[in-house]
Amino acid sequence: MRLVIFGPPGAGKGTQAELITSTWGIPHISTGEMLREAVASGTELGLKVKTVLEQGQLVSDELMVSVIEDRLSMPDASTGWLLDGYPRTVAQIATLERVLGDQELDRVICLRVPDSLLMDRLHKRGIDGDHGTKRSDDGDEIVRERLKVYKESTAPVAGVYREQGVLAEIDGTGTIDEVFLRISDIIEELRG
Ligand code: AP5
Ligand code: MG
Q1: Catalytic (active site) residue 148
Q2: In what order do the strands lie in the sheet with 28-30?
Q3: Nearest ligand to the C-alpha of residue 13?
Q4: Does residue 95 line the site of ligand 1, with CB under 6 A?
Q5: pLDDT tens by residue, 28-61
Q6: With contact defined as beta carbons under 8 Å apart, do 29 and 2 qualify?
Q7: Which of 26, 66, 128, 162 is most deeply buried (CB count within 10 A of its CB)?
Q8: 70-88: per-residue pLDDT in tens?
Q9: Nearest atom, ligand 1, residue 33 CA
Q10: Atom of ligand 1 lying closest to residue 173 CA
Q11: Would residue 88 show up in a list of annotated catalytic residues for this protein?
Q12: Which residues have a Cβ under 8 Å from the Cβ of 182 and sit 6 or more positions away?
């Protein structure tokens, strides 16, 4: 199965992706996590993107081409994947289509969460961290910037997938388990 989990910062993409992976064994590919790992290990890519991440801006589409191509060509991605954080611009949709070739994207699961709740969730994580780790982009001001970037550059991606008939929009509010149940319905239907 080839899935995208989509939504604004704090929508719960990573949280739900972990549950999907542990339930159905679909490899979770998070471009945000890949970039943070690159920064932490000081690779050439990491050095290039460190400031961009800290400012809440998007890494350029050009740099992201090889990131996604290389990752999706790994053996564990051959039978399916769950993409989290990609595609994030309309240009990245085209790159993904090229990588897909004649393979189909089954569904883009879009989490709808009001801005005030996104801000609350990320504010809390900015203070407490998650699993003992803090992110350099969870300060309130950077979160506001990430939301702005989402609205300008990323939200249009949903429109493209809606037109293609692969967008599944779900309510991302409520408890983690409640959201997961809504996602489970979609995946079980796809599994037939
Ligand atoms: P990325 O890592 O993708 O971050 P993001 O999209 O900004 O979103 P988050 O990871 O913060 O939120 P999430 O939706 O995963 O929510 P989570 O489950 O964590 O990208 C980071 C950066 O990398 C970008 O800004 C950009 O610079 C760069 N980048 C990445 N991909 C790129 C690309 N393709 N092109 C260019 N640049 C790229 O949940 C958030 C919090 O809420 C957690 O604390 C969680 O515990 C809590 N929570 C979740 N669900 C619930 C719930 N139902 N109830 C209560 N709390 C909840
Ligand atoms: Mg995430």
Answers
A1: no
A2: 28-30, 81-84, 2-6, 107-112, 167-171
A3: 1
A4: no
A5: 999 999 999 999 999 999 999 999 999 999 999 9
A6: no
A7: 26
A8: 999 999 999 999 999 999 9
A9: 2
A10: 53
A11: yes
A12: 170, 171
DSSP 104: P
Q: Strand 2-6 and strand 167-171: pairing?
A: unpaired
| Centre of ligand 1 from the C-alpha of residue 137, in Å | 10
Q: Please say if 146 is a catalytic residue.
A: yes
**CA-proximal residue: ligand 1, atom 12 (nearest):** 10
Residues of the chain with pLDDT > 90: what percent?
Answer: 96
Please count the other Cβ atoms lying within 10 Å of the Cβ belonging to residue 153: 17
Q: Is the CB of 86 under 6 A from ligand 1?
A: yes
Where do the domains of the chain lie? 2-184
Q: Is the Cβ atom of 64 under 6 angstroms away from ligand 1?
A: yes
Is the domain 2-184 a CATH 3.30.470.20 member? Answer: no
Annotation marks residue 135 as catalytic: yes
* Separation of alpha carbons 27 and 134, rounded Å: 24
Residue of 92, 90, 93, 73 lying closest to 29 (CA atoms) = 73
CA-CA distance, 116 to 138, in Å (whole number)?
A: 15
Q: Helices marked H in the chain — which ranges?
A: 13-24, 31-41, 44-54, 61-72, 90-100, 115-128, 140-149, 155-164, 176-191
